[in-house]
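Lab notebook, design round three. We kept the backbone fixed and only want residue identities now. Task for the bench partner: fill in a sequence for the structure below.
Input C-alpha cells:
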C-alpha cells in the first residue's frame, strides 16, 4: 500500500514515522510528555497515517481523505490544547466542545471501518445507540441514556474513552515494542530464529514441525501478532514440513497453533501484557514472571503433540549442514536485543526505556551482516552516552555523596547526555564518511525500519476510537457491573461455566475485532465476574487474555489458521481443525489459571514447585493421549500371534 502513495505522500508518511519514533524515544528516555501530548500525538499521527495508507479508490473520495485528515488534526488538536480548560468545565461543556467531540468520535469509527472492517464498526455503532437509547432498553441493562453530542462528549473527553487506557498503552508501550520488532527483523535476526532451531531439532522425529514451534516462540515473542508470526515463519517452515512428509493441512495447522504462543511469551507478549499491567497496576516485570511458565507449557504442549503426530506417521526431518552449536557460536549476538530488554525490565527499568535500549542493540548488531542490514548508528551512541552517563553519576553519588556531586548534576541530565551522544555521532559519521562509509544507505535503512514498525502498529492503533466508544459506553451505562452479575447468574456461581461463557464471548467478539481489542473489551466486563468467584486479579486477566486468542485458530473465523492453509495449499477447514487440535492447551490453560494458584506464582514456594511439576507431567500425558498413538499400541496387543 505504501508503494501506491504519491511521492509527497511518501515523504509525509516517512517524516511522521520518524517523528513518532523520536518523540516517544525522547519521552521514554529523557522526559515523559504531559498526558495530553503523550496520548494525543500518538492518536493524531496514527489517524493521519491511516487515512494516507488506507486510501479511497477514486480521486474525488481521495479529497475526502484529506478532509478527514484535517478534521482529525483539528479534533484531536482541540483536545490537546484545551485539555486543562475542558477538564475544568467538565459537565458544563460548551457547544464547540460537544461538536468537536462528535467529529472526533465519528472519525474514529470511520478509521476503524477502513482498517479493521465493518464488523468492528457495527459493534461500535451498536454501543453508541445503546448509550443514546439506554432508557428504552430492558430493565436489566437500562440506563438514563443521552443525546449524541452529550454521549460523544463523555466518550471523547473523559479518561475511559478515546484517550483512555488503550491510547495510553499504545503510546507508552506498544508503538516502541512494535518498532523494536521492526528493527530486530531489519538487522537480520529472523534468519537466526530459523537456522538455529533447524540445526538443533530439524533432523529428529517431526523435526521441521519442531523447528516451527521453536522458531515461532523466538520470533513470536517480539512480533506481537499470531498472524504475522504465521506468515513470516510459516513461509519457510510449512513447505519444509510438507517435504518431510506431514500432510498439507497438518503442516498448515501446526504453524498457527505454534504462532499463537508468541502472544503469551515474554518479553513482549503482544500488546496484551502491557494492557494487563496498566489495568492491574502491577509492574510489567511481574506480568512477565507470571506469564513465562504458562507460555513455556503452551509451547511444550504443541511440541509434544507434534512429536506424537510425527511418530504416528514416521515423519523424520533432514540433518542441517551446520551443527546447532556452530550456528549459535556464530550468530548468538542476535539474541542479545531480547536479553537486553528482559534484563533491564527485570532490574526495574521501564518497559519503554528497555525497548529503546533493545532497539539500539538491534542497530549495533546490524553491522554484523552485510551492507544491506546496516542501520544508522546515531541511536546507539546516544543511548550509550545516556546509559553510561547515568551510571557514572550514580556511582559518583554513591561514592562521594549526593551533596558533593550536586554541582555537576545538571551536566549529567539526560537531555545533555543526549546532546553529547548526538555530537559524538556526528563527529564519528564525518570520519566514517571520509573513509568511504555509505551513510546515506544506513540512514535509509533507519527510515525503512521506522516506516515498517509504524505501519505494523496502524492495525491496532486504528481501533483506539471504537474501543474508546465501547469502553466509554460500558462505563457510562454501568453495564460493567451489571454484566458481571449476569455472567455469575447464568453460570450459577460455577467457575467452570463462567470460564466457558467468557471463552464463547471472546470467540464471538474475536470474529470481528482484533484479538488485543477483544481482550481489553472482555477484560473490562469479565474480570470482575472472575474475581467475584475468588480468582485472583492477575489470574483473571490471564484467563481472559488467553481466551481472547482463540479466534485466531478456532473455526469459523480463525484467520491465522487460514493464513497457514494458504501457504500450505491445503483445505482451509481441515487446516483450521488441525490447528484447533494442536492448540488444545489454549483452552486448558485458563482452567489452570482459575483452579491452580501456583500457576500464577500465587502461594508458597512448595505450592508453586508442586504445581509446575504436576502440570509438566500432566501436559506430557495429555499430549500423548490426544495424539491417539496409544490406540495403535493397544491394538497391537490384541493382534494374533503369527502361525508357526
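Proposed sequence:
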Amino acid at each position: 500500500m505504501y508503494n501506491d502513495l504519491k511521492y509527497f505522500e511518501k515523504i509525509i508518511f516517512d517524516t511522521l514515522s520518524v517523528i513518532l519514533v523520536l518523540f516517544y524515544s525522547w519521552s521514554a528516555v529523557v522526559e515523559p510528555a504531559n498526558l495530553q501530548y503523550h496520548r494525543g500525538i500518538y492518536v493524531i499521527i496514527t489517524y493521519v497515517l491511516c487515512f494516507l495508507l488506507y486510501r479511497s479508490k477514486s480521486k474525488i473520495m481521495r479529497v475526502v481523505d484529506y478532509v478527514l485528515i484535517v478534521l482529525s488534526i483539528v479534533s484531536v488538536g482541540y483536545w490537546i490544547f484545551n485539555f486543562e480548560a475542558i477538564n475544568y468545565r467538565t459537565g458544563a461543556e460548551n457547544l464547540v466542545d460537544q461538536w468537536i467531540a462528535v467529529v472526533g468520535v465519528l472519525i474514529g469509527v470511520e478509521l476503524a471501518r477502513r482498517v479493521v472492517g465493518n464488523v468492528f464498526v457495527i459493534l461500535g455503532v451498536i454501543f453508541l445507540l445503546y448509550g443514546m437509547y439506554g432508557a428504552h432498553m430492558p430493565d436489566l441493562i437500562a440506563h438514563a441514556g443521552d443525546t449524541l453530542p452529550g454521549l460523544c462528549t463523555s466518550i471523547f473527553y473523559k479518561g475511559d474513552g478515546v484517550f483512555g487506557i488503550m491510547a495510553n498503552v499504545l503510546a507508552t508501550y506498544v508503538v516502541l515494542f512494535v518498532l523494536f520488532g521492526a528493527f530486530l527483523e531489519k538487522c537480520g535476526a529472523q534468519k537466526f530464529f530459523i537456522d538455529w532451531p533447524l540445526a538443533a531439532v530439524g533432523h529428529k522425529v517431526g523435526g521441521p514441525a519442531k523447528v516451527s514451534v521453536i522458531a515461532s516462540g523466538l520470533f513470536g515473542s517480539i512480533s506481537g501478532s499470531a498472524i504475522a508470526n504465521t506468515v513470516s515463519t510459516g513461509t519457510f517452515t510449512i513447505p519444509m514440513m510438507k517435504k518431510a512428509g506431514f500432510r498439507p493441512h497438518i503442516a498448515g495447522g501446526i504453524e498457527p497453533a505454534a504462532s499463537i504462543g508468541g502472544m503469551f511469551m515474554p518479553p513482549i507478549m503482544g500488546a496484551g501484557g502491557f494492557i494487563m499491567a496498566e489495568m492491574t497496576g502491577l509492574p510489567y516485570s511481574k506480568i512477565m514472571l507470571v506469564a513465562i511458565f504458562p507460555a513455556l507449557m503452551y509451547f511444550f504442549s504443541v511440541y509434544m503433540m507434534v512429536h506424537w503426530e510425527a511418530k504416528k506417521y514416521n515423519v523424520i526431518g533432514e540433518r542441517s549442514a551446520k551443527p546447532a552449536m556452530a550456528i549459535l557460536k556464530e550468530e548468538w549476538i542476535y539474541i542479545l536485543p531480547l536479553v537486553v530488554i528482559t534484563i533491564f525490565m527485570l532490574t526495574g527499568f521501564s518497559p519503554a526505556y528497555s525497548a529503546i535500549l533493545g532497539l539500539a542493540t538491534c542497530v549495533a548488531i546490524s553491522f554484523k551482516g552485510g551492507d544491506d542490514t546496516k542501520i544508522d548508528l546515531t541511536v546507539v551512541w546516544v543511548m550509550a552516552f545516556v546509559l553510561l552517563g547515568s551510571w557514572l553519576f550514580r556511582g559518583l553519588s554513591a561514592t562521594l555523596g549526593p551533596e558533593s556531586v550536586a554541582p555537576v548534576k545538571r551536566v549529567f541530565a539526560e537531555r545533555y547526555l543526549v546532546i553529547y551522544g548526538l555530537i559524538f555521532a556526528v563527529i564519528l559519521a564525518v570520519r566514517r564518511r571520509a573513509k568511504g562509509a555509505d551513510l546515506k544507505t544506513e540512514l535509509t535503512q533507519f527510515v525503512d525500519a521506522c516506516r515498517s514498525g509504524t505501519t505494523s502498529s496502524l492495525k491496532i492503533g486504528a481501533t483506539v476510537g471504537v474501543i474508546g466508544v465501547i469502553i466509554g459506553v460500558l462505563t457510562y451505562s454501568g453495564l460493567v457491573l451489571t454484566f458481571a452479575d449476569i455472567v455469575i447468574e447464568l453460570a450459577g456461581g460455577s467457575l467452570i461455566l463462567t470460564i466457558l461463557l467468557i471463552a464463547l464471548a471472546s470467540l464471538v467478539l474475536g470474529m470481528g475485532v482484533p484479538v488485543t481489542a477483544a481482550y481489553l473489551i472482555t477484560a473490562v466486563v469479565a474480570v470482575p465476574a472472575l474475581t467475584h468467584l475468588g480468582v485472583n486479579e492477575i489470574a483473571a486477566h490471564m484467563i481472559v487474555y488467553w481466551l481472547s486468542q482463540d479466534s485466531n485458530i478456532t473455526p469459523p473465523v480463525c484467520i491465522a489458521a487460514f493464513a497457514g492453509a494458504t501457504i500450505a495449499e491445503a483445505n482451509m477447514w481441515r487446516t483450521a481443525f488441525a490447528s484447533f487440535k494442536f492448540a488444545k492447551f489454549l483452552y486448558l490453560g485458563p482452567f489452570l489459571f482459575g483452579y491452580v494458584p501456583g500457576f500464577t506464582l500465587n502461594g508458597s514456594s512448595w505450592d508453586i514447585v508442586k504445581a509446575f511439576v504436576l502440570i509438566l507431567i500432566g501436559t506430557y500425558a495429555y499430549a500423548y493421549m490426544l495424539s491417539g498413538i496409544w490406540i495403535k499400541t493397544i491394538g497391537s496387543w490384541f493382534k494374533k500371534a503369527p502361525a508357526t
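Keep this in mind before ordering anything: The chain has a mean pLDDT of 86.
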